[in-house]
Amino acid sequence: MCDCIFCKIGKGEISSKKYYEDDDFFIISDISPKAKCHYLMIPKNHYKLISEQTENDRKIIAKMFDVLPKIQHELGLDGGYRLIINQGEDGGQEVPHLHIHILGGEKLKSF
Ligand code: AMP
Ligand code: ZN
């Protein structure tokens, strides 16, 4: 049995407000926000790393990039946003289920 928190949220086994959902991915708020708006865009298929992606996983990432600009207004991101994907230990990945952080709602510090 899968013990992954994001799989459980995706299947509705743990409730979480979904700002967007389709058959392939969903968007929730990060439980520990690092900006005024901090969302997580999460594919429903469980895998950890970009290096593990199938062709279909890549298609779903492309779909995310298609959908996000269409709903950015609803998400309070009219001023823009920053996308981050943490990968592996050095990247600081805590949850081993690929996800894209969406940060915005304010002017972010440059890095
Ligand atoms: P990462 O370090 O890229 O793996 O990020 C994992 C993110 O998931 C962190 O920013 C956590 O705050 C967030 N997180 C962990 N559990 C939950 C949860 N149940 N609901 C929403 N966000 C979560
Ligand atoms: Zn998972």
Secondary-structure map with pairings?
Blueprint: H1 5-10, E1 20-21, E2 25-29, E3 37-43, H2 55-71, E4 81-84, E5 100-104
Antiparallel strand pairs: 1-2, 2-3, 3-5, 4-5
Adenosine monophosphate binds next to loops.
Describe this structure in words.
It is a single chain. The chain is an alpha+beta fold and 111 residues long. Helices cover 21% and strands 21% of the residues. It is built from 2 helices and 5 strands; from the N terminus they run αβββαββ. A 5-stranded antiparallel sheet has the order 1-2-3-5-4, with helices on one face. A hairpin with a 3-residue loop joins strand 1 and strand 2. The longest helix has 17 residues. The protein is globular and about 35 Å long. The protein starts with a helix and ends in a 7-residue tail after the last strand. The model has no long low-confidence stretch (mean pLDDT 97). Zinc ion binds next to helix 1.
In summary, what is this structure?
With 111 residues, this protein is an alpha+beta fold. The chain has helices spanning 5-10, 55-71, and strands at 20-21, 25-29, 37-43, 81-84, 100-104. It binds adenosine monophosphate and zinc ion.
Contiguous uncertain segments of 5+ residues: none
- SS-derived structural category: alpha+beta
**Biggest beta-sheet profile:** 5 strands, antiparallel
Measured on Cα atoms, how large is the radius of gyration?
14 Å
Number of strands: 5
Q: Describe the global form.
A: globular
Bound molecules: adenosine monophosphate, zinc ion
